[in-house]
Amino acid sequence: MAAGVLPEPGTQFGPCLIVCRHIDCAQTRAMAESYCTICIKRIGYDKRFYNGDQPNTWDHAVCLEDKIEAENNRHIEKVERRKDPRDKAPSIFDRE
Ligand SMILES: [Zn+2]
Ligand SMILES: [Zn+2]
What we know:
alpha+beta, 3 strands, binds zinc ion
């Protein structure tokens, strides 16, 4: 699945620099003003983003990729710990 990117205002495919009544400009501006559901910052221009969990929500690609990676790492950690729990001395960091 490809990520979307909003072209910057004033560029060939970007919205007009001035306030206008073009439908596609308005849509692009509205999306750029939307907040990423992960970092709660504006989606902005020239950044890769994906659809969010809910309709009409968006997540930065980097935020989503970080989130997925963090979840995968947590999973790998658990699997490794389960593989041989006696291998490691118990420590305070093992408490869940
Ligand atoms: Zn326009
Ligand atoms: Zn984000």
